[in-house]
From TrEMBL:
Gene3D superfamilies cross-referenced by the UniProt entry: 1.10.287.1490
Keywords, comma-separated and alphabetical: Coiled coil
Native species: Longilinea arvoryzae
Every CT398-like coiled coil hairpin domain range: 10-186
Record's protein name: Zn-ribbon protein, possibly nucleic acid-binding
Coiled-coil region list: 10-64, 90-138
InterPro entries referenced in this protein's UniProt entry, alphabetically: CT398_CC_hairpin, Zf-RING_7
Domain C4-type zinc ribbon: 199-230
Pfam family, one: Zn_ribbon_9
Length: 233
């Protein structure tokens, strides 16, 4: 068995650990993001605010119409009730009634416009609420899926940790130090296999002597181009 065998096995383990760790980090990032939900909530809040504003405006108009109708009835009662005899007062009452009726007509026109706007606002609010509930449900499903994947990966990492400890115990500390330093300088890839007489990392074609040396049980062989440890099986 070559010296590179255990290092190659360790490399495969460490690659799996790195992949699982990176994916967990990505899942945590995704779980912390809720832009779509925040946006949907913002749209719903805006629609609700607009709806409340229009409802408030409609109530104000309705109250104003109601009050002016009462005032009109009171003024007409005084105008036609016979209690007021003074021509000037009667003229003032007539002018007041005319003005009140004109104002009521204008308010009723405005009321119709606001009622149309209210229908639109209610529709917009229903749509915003439906979108919010859809995004919330969709995100809940995605989050559940991500949490399940994270749990599976964490279980894998726990198992790989045990396997790694057992494997490291079989490797000479000096070789392990060489592997660690090389892995740190080679973006996590310290040991590579020989495939089709080439270094699988950089593609350099290896001589028969280099391949034979990579199978040696007495020393490690590094790729002359990328410097990684070669494993020839």
């Amino acid at each position: 068995m070559s010296l590179s065998f255990h290092l190659f096995q360790l490399q495969k383990l460490d690659t799996r650990v790195s992949n699982a760790t990176n994916r967990i980090a990505e899942i945590d990032r995704l779980l912390s993001q809720n832009e779509a939900l925040v946006q949907a909530q913002g749209s719903l809040d805006s629609a609700a605010e607009t709806l409340d504003s229009i409802r408030s405006k409609l109530r104000e108009i309705e109250i104003s119409v109601h009050n002016k109708r009462i005032k009109t009835e009171q003024s007409e009662a005084a105008l036609y009730g016979g209690t007021v005899k003074n021509p000037k007062e009667l003229q003032d009452l007539q002018t007041e009634v005319t003005t009140l009726k004109r104002t009521i007509s204008q308010l009723e026109d405005a009321q119709l416009e606001v009622m149309v706007a209210l229908e639109e606002a209610e529709q917009n609010h229903r749509e915003a609420e439906a979108q919010f509930n859809h995004v919330k449900a969709e995100q809940a499903g995605q989050f559940a899926s991500l949490m399940g994947e994270k749990s599976t990966l964490q279980t894998l990492l726990d198992r790989l940790s045990i396997e790694r400890k057992a494997l490291v115990s079989q490797i000479n500390p000096a070789l392990l130090e060489t592997y660690t330093q090389l892995r740190n300088s080679k973006r996590g890839l310290a040991v590579v296999s020989v495939e089709d007489s080439c270094c699988s990392a950089c593609g350099t074609t290896l001589t028969a002597a280099e391949i034979q040396a990579a199978r040696s049980s007495s020393h490690l062989v590094n790729c002359s181009t990328c410097g990684r440890i070669l494993y020839a099986g």
